């Protein structure tokens, strides 16, 4: 990696700011996004603003300055899969997003593709499955349940809890992004996944066991509107063409390490917790099993 890496905080729709930063960069890796589906259901506008207009703003700066660009996106652009169908998403799967969040990410991917084709910018795209690991906001599924248990609150499962997510440790995601930047072909898309399909109920039961609690000690709550049933990535292209492989040994080991991180870093997550639970309490209630 280069000697000067800047993680930039600020408004990516601020064209003057973005232009200044891009003018000074050899490479832009675009991780910035409004990323939480539940938030996109209560207020879609920040998602259109940041994910669509923000990406447009970056693309225009990259076009002006001829900067190499990598766009980080999600497998949610492909919609969802049935539980009983073994098919997985590939780079050829048609876009079919379900939520305001995933539709804005789909729109941002299409903008990148169009800027490659129409203006010849040097860009790659990656679409990754669900991340977990340290420093994830407590509104997300795994940190919410870990911090609930630490606070003596029962974990909360949406609907029947049988929805499947394909988990990858954030460090493996980052290594995959770097592999694509170094070895990927400009104009191409690569799917990132670590063969980590698990249903939500199993995640919660594993987590309770790892934290020394009764595995049945959780609640079902109101389901998410339009809740995608299953995500699953076929990472063959990334593995065979670019030689990437995940380094994290297994989801359960990664989960245990993540629990330890949240145990040891309450100072980091505590300021997020009350507002997050209040936000959920306003739209969710406990339902019978
Ligand atoms: C917060 C919460 C979630 N859930 C369920 C909903 C999902 O089936 C699963 C994971 O939910 P989460 O909101 O953490 O993540 P997804 O909606 O799958 O989306 C995530 O992974 C993709 C790839 C992105 O692109 C998103 O940016 C990222 O947020 O757990 C519950 O059952 N209870 C809860 O309290």
From TrEMBL:
Question: Does this entry carry the keyword Coiled coil?
Answer: no
Judging by the UniProt lineage, the source's domain of life is Bacteria
Where would you find the membrane-spanning parts of this chain? none
Q: Which UniProt keywords apply?
A: Lyase, NAD
Enzyme class, first EC level, given as a word: lyase
Q: Which GO terms describe its molecular function?
A: dTDP-glucose 4,6-dehydratase activity
Quote the EC number: 4.2.1.46
Domain annotation NAD(P)-binding: ranges: 3-256
InterPro entries from the UniProt entry: dTDP_Gluc_deHydtase, NAD(P)-bd_dom, NAD(P)-bd_dom_sf
* UniProt xrefs under Pfam families: GDP_Man_Dehyd
The UniProt entry, under Gene3D superfamilies, shows: NAD(P)-binding Rossmann-like Domain, UDP-galactose 4-epimerase, domain 1
Catalyses which reaction?
dTDP-alpha-D-glucose = dTDP-4-dehydro-6-deoxy-alpha-D-glucose + H2O
User: Which Gene Ontology BP terms does the record give?
Assistant: nucleotide-sugar metabolic process
Similarity comment text for this entry:
Belongs to the NAD(P)-dependent epimerase/dehydratase family. dTDP-glucose dehydratase subfamily.
Please state what the protein is called: dTDP-glucose 4,6-dehydratase
Annotated organism of origin:
Knoellia aerolata DSM 18566
Q: What is the taxonomic lineage of the source species?
A: Bacteria, Bacillati, Actinomycetota, Actinomycetes, Micrococcales
């Amino acid at each position: 990696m280069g000697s000067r890496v800047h993680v930039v905080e600020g408004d990516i729709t601020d064209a003057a700011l973005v232009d200044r930063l891009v003018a000074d960069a050899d490479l832009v890796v675009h991780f910035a996004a409004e990323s939480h589906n539940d938030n996109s259901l209560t207020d879609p506008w920040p998602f259109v603003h940041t994910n669509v207009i923000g990406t447009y703003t970056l693309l225009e700066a990259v076009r002006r300055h001829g900067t190499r660009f990598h766009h980080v996106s999600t497998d949610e652009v492909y919609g969802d899969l049935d539980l009983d169908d073994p098919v997985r998403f590939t780079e050829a799967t048609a876009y079919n997003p379900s939520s305001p969040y995933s539709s804005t990410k789909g729109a941002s991917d299409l903008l990148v593709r169009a800027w490659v084709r129409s203006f010849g910018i040097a860009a790659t795209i990656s679409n990754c499955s669900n991340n977990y690991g340290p420093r994830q906001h407590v509104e997300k599924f795994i940190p919410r349940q870990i911090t609930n248990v630490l606070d003596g609150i029962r974990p909360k499962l949406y609907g029947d809890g049988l929805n499947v997510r394909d988990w990858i440790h954030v460090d493996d995601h980052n290594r995959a992004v770097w592999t694509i930047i170094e070895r990927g072909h400009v104009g191409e898309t690569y799917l990132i996944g670590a063969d980590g399909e698990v249903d939500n109920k199993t995640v919660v039961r594993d987590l309770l066991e790892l934290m020394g609690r009764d595995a049945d000690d959780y609640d079902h709550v109101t389901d998410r509107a339009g809740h995608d049933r299953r995500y699953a990535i076929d990472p063959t292209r990334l593995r065979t063409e670019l030689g990437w492989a995940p380094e994290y040994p297994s989801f359960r080991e990664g989960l245990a390490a993540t629990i330890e991180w949240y145990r040891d870093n309450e100072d980091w997550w505590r300021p997020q917790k009350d507002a997050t639970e209040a936000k959920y309490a306003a739209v969710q209630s406990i339902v019978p099993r």
